[in-house]
Amino acid sequence: MIEAYAAEGAEHGAAGAGHLPNPMHQFEIKRIIPLELFGFDASFTNSALFMVIAGTIITLFTIYAMRKRALVPSRVQSVAELSYEFVARMVRDTAGTDGMKYFPFGFTLFMFVLVLNMLGMVPYTFTVTSHIIVTFALAAFIFLGVTLIGFIKHGAKFLKFFVPEGVPLVMLPLLSPRGLIVC
Description:
Number of strands: 4
Structural class: mainly alpha
Number of helices: 6
């Protein structure tokens, strides 16, 4: 795969000495396994491939790092524990101990985005997070999830979190959009 990107990069370059290949090819989504379902393009692409690679790296890393579960951790186990504790502390600080039930999702998302960004820094690899649709899909999924959980836990009172207490009713049309943007 990397050789194909390197060869393609050489093709995009100008035919003279001193010219560099066009770096934009690394952002192109290419079909690896063409697939059409119900009239929609559901092909397995280089973007999907690198997401699978990221998931595999995360899985193998955590399994390898925690295989011995030593009291005095190795370097790899220490990195795994530090990343775990970093996200756990962030969840506890922002959502309290009740928010720890959402920790597995937060930790998975953190590791997924971290590994995708690290993979994107390797020359001739695909940068999944450079595409706005990936970022938007992750953000929209989280926004809808948080909103749904908020309505389940608090009902219609959930909307009060977006407006400061004691605001006159006349000001609500001005402050409500601001509350959605800021949160």
